[in-house]
Predict the structure.
Amino acid sequence: MDWVNAIIQGILIGGLYALFAAGLSLIFGVMRLVNIAHGDLIVATAYLAWVIIKATGVHPLVSLIFVLPIAAFIGYWLQIGIFNRVLGKDILPPLLVSFGLSVIIQNGLLATFTVDSHKLNAGVFETSSFEILPGISMGYFPLLMFFTAIAVIIALQYMFYHTSLGRAFRATSDDTEVALLMGLDNRKVYAWAMAICLAVVALAGVFLAIRSNFDPFMGPGRLIFGFEAVIIGGLGNLWGTLIGGVILGVAQGLGAELDPGWQVLAGHLAFLLVLAIRPRGLFPRIAG
Amino acid sequence: MSDIISRSTLASKLAGLVALVAIAVLIAAPWWGSVATERLIGEFMVYLALASLWNLLAGYTGLVSVGQQSFVGFGAYIVFSLALLAGWNPLYTVPMAGIATALIAIPVAKLVFRLQGAYFAIGTWVVAEVFRLGFAQMSILGGGSGKSMPANVVKQIAETKFWREATIYWLAIAIGIGALAMVYALLRSRIGLALTAIRDNETASVSLGIRIERVKYLVYVFVAGMTGLVGALFALQKIRITPDAAFSVNDWTAFVIFIVVIGGIGTIEGPIFGTIIYFLLREFLADLGSIYLLILGALAIGVMLTTPKGIWGFIQARFNLSLFPTGFRVLSKDKS
């Protein structure tokens, strides 16, 4: 029964990993940028929620009303102020800048909030569950995370293929110069993509903070989980990202069942295994 | 014909002379400096080597790795494994650490080379995490809490403290200067010509018949082996190992990237100046703790936004100066 439980919990946690990954995937799809500070931004939004809850006393899920737009606003200006200046043919400058940003966010959080870990308290909702089979129960909160991930992916897919903003994203991604000729300002398009990315990041950050303790140095680990989900699922495929997250979650769950020290390691090994046999991921859509 | 083609310039001849004198002074440090001086210079050499190697990788082949800590940690663990488990003299383990690390880099390269660009970067990081978590599981090497080198093993390096410190110090000089010299020699060779071509234009260099993937692969494995040597040096300097310190992304990759970016990526001189600047900053600001790292990150972003070729790139463009030239130039005698 423990094994079945581990698999079910792994599947549900896969939803959270898909949320980590969705923003990465979106940004890479639109502007070929891999943001090394992605994980640190997730943690930063968790702190943002923590501050807002401390000041207003609202429920963590209600705090999203504030955290989401603030994060999107920050994303927009992060893109205009920093990333747009280094994006170009050479991938090195944006990569190094995002690496610097990662160190700045980590140490900024450390200087402001100390190394103590925090957690967002969502009340009984966090721990309540129901039995699906004798001995196997499902938590409401992990289920909410999982279905939120599905909803986010549906929303992103819809945005990409059925809205004018999505058309601008696809056009800029396909051919920046022609998109410019058609009157699309690629800097603004990129800024909107980063704003949406940060909104998804904020969602992931609040869920992460409800689920477990967080501290200033958790970011890189979250970046790696998100990245692994993207690569396992296949570049450019949002639904693949969800499957990648689920595979990662299940591998970690099974690893932890074997030995607690093996939890994260098992996830990494699953990723390397996929890389060895299917280098383009399980369900690739675009060339890397 | 009064034009001559030459590699060296007055500046480069002077720089070579200064470098020789500096190396001689450094080798004599055990007699003019304290143990603290030796250790500081030793640490400087660690970063000089890592920065030169990372610069070769990222600045010339475009392979941006954020997982070089894999090889530092692996080299360090080879030293501890051979010295503690196989009973080797710690000094003799050092070359083995380099060889073993180059060997382990072959399958690693096979895996991570499947990823492109920035995804390659994070892929190398995952490998480093696998190494860290894997070594943390090995209880024979102390598991997560690590291991210290017992006194009787350390004494095999040399009987007295003076000679022990001096031996490890000279090893640091040899690895630091050696790495720099090897990168320099490599860049002046045929491979260096290929690397410079790749750096300047990857597509054009393919059309000229450079087998990019092969060159990149060779450089990656070479850099890994040398990085393993640095890890071995680190193990002897600290005589204590933990997975978190040996595979630290901050110590072995973040700082190294900042050094290269600030100094000037894609130049020989950049990492040298970057390392000097890094140590100066550290001497004055390290007490600030997290604020210091914040400043370092901001400085790296600032340099990237304003002078993407770093401080040395700026000087080079402004004064047409090259201390360690790898290319050739035409010197016209008519003009002078």
